[in-house]
Write a structure and sequence with these properties.
339 residues; alpha+beta; 6-stranded antiparallel sheet; 13 strands; 21% strand
């Protein structure tokens, strides 16, 4: 393929655009010291509920938000900043009406990891090893019941976190938060899996793997890494991202030891077996979301050496659907064709 499909599609076109969002979406989601708006009786934060776009400072006001930070983040300005764009869960909506935020699942940590979380502030420090462990497990569990998690397990169970790819200009994104801090300290140790729309609408998380999802929110490219609209001709579609940290930490995939040097720079060299295992995850997912694959195949493209891992500590890869060729032939539309 064209220069290994131009260095495996330029190392995955910024490697799983949604993953960076997921990796940085800790924080809480609650207003005021007495009781968060979303925590009041009659407003349960459960899977399948939808909400408005108000953030904590909008509902609390600056004075009460400062008190919230003092109580649950130890007064740390840095940790408090991570809560500034958290949802307030102030107004619920029927999900078939225009809304901004959907809780598409609610998950818990395994007991051994939860026992290491001694305060709510532990869930806000994105630089800590504990936060990284929590992040990886929450991402894994948020997608476990979706086609992403099902495909990962069906492909052999390689412990990677498969998740949606995201067009940063598409107005739709995903993330996660712990429950509001007041709920957490009262014993509700849960995490909210979130799907957000920049403008109120009725798109749901479950639409992502179907033809109902807006084509403008999908990611397509021409080799090596020119992003182009999926509605027009393109050579590949970015169908999913993968976080590989769990596989690396368990010894199932190599980490920094996979980096090699050549005359034209450093690169990540996976064994043929490891590459085939990642490709199989992508292929299994493609077959789950496409009824007519039209001779397409799905392959995994790992990050380049400078991003292995990235500054956020993530080892990333991206699944692309394309027709084999040198260069890959053009195709139109999206591979997500299930209704």
């Amino acid at each position: 393929m064209a220069g290994q499909v131009s260095q495996r599609l330029a190392a995955g076109l910024l490697i799983g655009l949604l993953l960076a969002v997921l990796a940085g979406c800790g924080g809480d989601g609650a207003p005021k010291s007495e009781d968060a708006a979303g925590s009041q009786p009659g407003k349960p934060l459960t899977a399948g509920t939808c909400w408005d776009a108000e953030h904590l400072p909008d509902v609390l006001g600056q004075h009460r938000f400062d008190a919230w930070v003092e109580q649950y983040a130890g007064g740390s300005e840095v940790l408090g900043q991570s809560m500034r764009d958290d949802a307030a869960y102030d107004r619920p909506f029927a999900c078939d009406e225009p809304h901004t935020l959907e809780i598409f699942d609610v998950v818990s940590l395994e007991p051994a990891l939860l026992a290491r979380v001694t305060s709510y502030a532990d869930l806000l420090d994105e630089s800590s090893p504990l936060y990284a462990r929590v992040r990886d497990q929450v991402i894994d569990r948020c997608f476990a019941r979706s086609p992403y998690g099902v495909a990962q397990r069906k492909a052999g169970g390689l412990p990677v976190q498969l998740s949606p790819s995201e067009n940063p200009d598409g107005g739709l994104s995903g993330g996660w938060d712990p429950v509001p801090a007041d709920r957490w300290v009262r014993g509700e140790k849960k995490f909210l899996c979130l799907f957000e729309q920049d403008r109120p609408g009725t798109v749901r998380f479950a639409d992502i793997t179907t033809s109902r999802y807006p084509l403008a929110a999908r990611v397509c490219i021409d080799v090596p890494a020119k992003e182009v609209p999926c509605a027009g001709p393109h050579q590949a579609e970015n169908i999913a991202g993968m976080v590989l940290n769990t596989a690396v930490e368990s010894g199932r995939l190599p980490g920094r030891t996979a980096i090699r040097s050549a005359t034209n720079g450093r690169y990540v060299a996976l064994s043929g077996r490891d590459q085939a295992r990642l490709d199989q995850v992508c292929q299994t997912f493609l077959e789950a979301v496409s009824t007519a694959q039209r001779g397409l195949t799905a392959a995994a493209y790992v990050a380049d050496a400078d991003e292995w891992p990235g500054k956020d500590g993530l080892y990333n890869a991206t699944c692309y659907a394309l027709e084999p060729g040198d260069p890959p032939p053009m195709m139109n539309g999206s591979v997500f064709d299930r209704g």
